[in-house]
Structures are given as C-alpha cells and as structure tokens.
Amino acid sequence: MASEQSAIPILDLSWADDSKLKPQLLEQLQSALFDVGFLYVRNHDVPPSTISALTDRLPALFDLPGRERAAMSKLNSPHFLGYSGFAEETTLGQQDLREQFDMGTELPVVWRDPEAVNGGGNVDEGDRDFTKLYWRLRGPNQWPSEKSLPGFQEAYTSYHDAVQELSHRFVHLIEEAFGIPVGTFDHFFGRQPTSSSSSSETSTNGTTRTFLPPQHRIKLLKYPPSPPNATTNGHQGVGAHKDSSGWLTFLYQVSSGPGLEVLSSSNTWLPAHPIPNTFVVNFGNAFEAATEGAVKATTHRVVAPGPDAETRYSIPFFQGLPLDMTVSEVREYIPEKVKKMRGEVSGVQNQSDEFLDPRWDCLGESQLRKWVRSHRDVAEKWYGRDVLEYYTS
Ligand SMILES: O=C(O)CCC(=O)C(=O)O
Ligand SMILES: [Fe+2]
Fold first, then answer.
1. Tens digit of pLDDT for each residue in 130-141?
2. Is 116 part of a structural domain of the chain?
3. Sheet of strand 300-303: strand arrangement
4. DSSP-assigned letters across all residues of 10-48
5. Side-chain half-sphere of 96: how many Cα atoms within 13 Å?
6. Cα-Cα-Cα-Cα dihedral of 26, 27, 30, 34, to 10°?
7. Which atom of ligand 1 is nearest to the CA of 223?
8. DSSP state, 148?
9. Is 121 among the domain residues?
10. Which atom of ligand 1 is nearest to 318's Cα?
11. Which terminal residue of the chain has fewer beta carbons within 10 Å of its beta carbon, N or C?
C-alpha cells in the first residue's frame, strides 16, 4: 500500500515493448493513476530534435516586438487562441506571473451563426448542431509571421503531432492498466478503434457515437524571475489548480530550474523538478469525473523563479475531448471495477467530491465556461454580456 506520496514515479515507456517488463510498467502506471495522480515518462518517442526545434524558438517568440505580440492577442480570437500578456490571467483571485501563447490543433471554424442569412441550419456531419455556441471554441491559431520567426509554425506543428501520438499511445496503456480492451477510447479522438478492440467502441449501455477529432490545446509559457522586492503574491507563477482543459496533460519543462509543485494526499507540496528528456503526465477534471474520482485530477502550482533564477519556459499539452460529448457518456466506457480500483491500489477511499457541476455535463459547455471565466474581455467581445454573465454568475 502506498499511503504517502513520497515521490512522483518515472515510467519508462520502452518497457511497453518488452513482454517481461510490461507487467511492471502497468503496475507502476496503476499506482500513478490511483495514488499520486502525477508521473514522468521517459523513452516516450518524441524525438529530441522535434522538442528542441520548438523550445529553441521560445525566447525569440516572447521577445517579438510588443506590437507583433499584440497583433496575436487572444482578443482577436473567438476561439480563445493567441497571446496573453504578463499577469493578465488570475488563479484564486491573484495574478499569475507568466506570459503565454494559447495554441491548439490547427482546425477550421465549424460554428454557424444561427442569425446569419445562410449561416444557420442545424444539421451537418450527421446530427451535429454547429450552431451551438461551444463549437465556436474550435478554430485556427494566430501565427507569428514567417519573416519574424522563421520555422516556428513548422516546429510547432511537428511538436503537436508528436505529442498527440504520445497521447494516443499513453491512453492505450491506461486502457491496459484499467483492464479494458485497447482502443476503447480511440473514437473519442476521432480514431478508428484498433482491431483487438472491435467490440469496445460501444459503451456499457451498448450505444456508439462518432466524434470529430478534438482540438488539443497547447500553452507556450514564460515565467520571468520575480523582482527582488516581490511580496508573497509575487511568487505565484500559476496558482494551485487542477487542469480543466482536457483529458490528460503532457507537460514539457523546458528550463532546468524548480517551480512545479504537486499537492500530495497528505496536503504537502511535492516538487516536480524538471528531469531531462521526460514529460510530466497528469489527469484533467474530465478524467476525474469520468472515473468518479478513482483517478484524481491532482492539484498543482508553479512557484515563480526567484530574482536570481533563470526564466522558466514550459509547454503543457492538454489532450482534447469532443465538445459534443458529455461526462456521463464518457463514464459509460469506464467499468465499475475501475471506479473501485483506487481503494484497492492505494488504500485511499474514493473521495468523489469535485465532480463537474451537472449543468456543465456537456464537455463543450464546461470548456466554454472555463474560457469565459478566465478571459472575460474575450468573452464579452465575441459572445456578449449575457453569455459572460451566464457563465460567471
Ligand atoms: O508551467 C508549468 O510547469 C505548469 C503549468 C500548468 O500547470 C498549467 O498551465 O496548467
Ligand atoms: Fe496545470
């Protein structure tokens, strides 16, 4: 029984290809899923050159002239994609001392304005109703010009594709750790189920739906050193939070300094230092809700670098889920035995206290609510006061 989260496990994904080591890997994964809720992965097959092509360009991206960064402002985007200046976001009512570019899977707009002359019509791609407001979250990135930052779009795209591949592979390992057919969740990601799981695309109630491949979200983050006279608040890189943007998070810590901390079950902060050539993996609110709290969306935070420390750069990749899916629907793919596994593996009983409000059962609604609440100016501009008030009251 692992009662104290003394360390965050490091899983070697190359063990998945070795029949002797694989059972041990799955055991470690179970303990990471049902106990700590955080892990590192090494030998993840994301090529170092793909990572460095993007990370090497981050300083230049954030050093673009102010007017070029402003030209990519999130305010330009109904999809909440783009640049936010230093300390423009808050967590727990306090400013987060970081600067960021919110990016995503590059996708065209699908939302149809129901008021537009030819824009309405609510049947498309099967029965999908693209006039629903949450579809407006989906759309293209804002890019720096090729002249200002040569090779950036290509580097970002390769990175996105490689981490997406890792995310698919990792979800398959989770299915194995859960003891459910490999490929059970494939159609959430717009993928054909693998052949070994032909019966698995139906939920426990026997229904099947197809989804559009979701939009993953990627943040490019810069945390500068805090000023020497900073107050206690001056150290909040990002305040304590659970990830609300996706299913799983794959975080690449670019800089070598400390900062990321994870809340243990005994309410102490465990440092999650950068380990070269690894990604940190954790689970989002939707995952916690789908497993009825068996797998926790573990709380974490970033302490801003001290005055003499180096700037911290990091890149979380939030694996998306279909906007027109509900948490109740996801839950149907998770057998009862998984929901009970937390107690068996860690000796800690399910503490299913933080589920999504039933009003936001639809993942698109909960995502729209999240974005509206964290970027009220963007919400008011593109969605109007009524929507802003609805999601913030
Ligand atoms: O910057 C980091 O290391 C973590 C950031 C994070 O937790 C987030 O943006 O959700
Ligand atoms: Fe996070």
1. 999 999 999 999
2. no
3. 236-241, 300-303, 260-263, 269-271
4. EEEGGGGG-TTTHHHHHHHHHHIIIIISEEEEES----H
5. 21
6. -170
7. 1
8. T
9. no
10. 10
11. C
Q: How many Cβ atoms sit within 10 Å of the Cβ of residue 276?
A: 8
Ligand 1 pocket, residue 260 CB under 6 Å: yes
| Structural domain total, the chain | 1
From ligand 1's centre to the CA of 241, what distance in Å? Answer: 9
What is the structure's pLDDT at 245? 80
The confidence score (pLDDT) of residue 351 equals 47
Q: Which two tokens stand for residue 388?
A: 């802003």
Give domain status of residue 299, yes or no.
yes
Classify each residue of 315-332 as buried b or exposed e, where b means 16 or more C-beta atoms within 10 Å of its C-beta: bbbbbbbbbbbbbebbbe
Tokens linked to 145: 């010009």
Are 257 and 309 contacting, i.e. CB atoms less than 8 angstroms apart? yes
Amino acid at 274: P
Tell which residue, 249, 251, 241, has the closest CA to residue 274.
Answer: 251
* Distance (Å) from CA 19 to ligand 1 centroid: 34
Contact 85, 69 (CB under 8 A): yes
Instruction: Specify the residue with its C-alpha closest to ligand 1, atom 10.
Output: 243
Question: What number of other Cβ atoms are within 10 A of residue 86's Cβ?
Answer: 15
Average of pLDDT values for 282-286? 94
* Residue showing tokens 């913030």: 392
pLDDT digits (tens, 9 = 90+) for 58-110: 999 999 999 999 999 999 999 999 999 999 988 878 889 999 999 999 999 99
206 burial class (0-12, 13-18, 19+ CB within 10 angstroms)?
Answer: exposed
| Unique residue bearing structure tokens 């057998």 | 335
In the sheet that 38-42 helps form, which strands lie side by side, from edge to edge?
Answer: 10-12, 38-42, 279-283, 248-253, 312-318, 217-223, 99-104, 82-84
Note whether residue 218 is domain-resident.
yes
Ligand 1 pocket, residue 300 CB under 6 Å: yes
In angstroms, the Cα distances linking 154 to 53, 143, 144, 375 are 9, 11, 12, 28
CATH code for the domain in which residue 83 is found? 2.60.120.330
Longest CA–CA span in the chain (Å) reads: 63
Domain that residue 354 falls in: 5-106+141-392
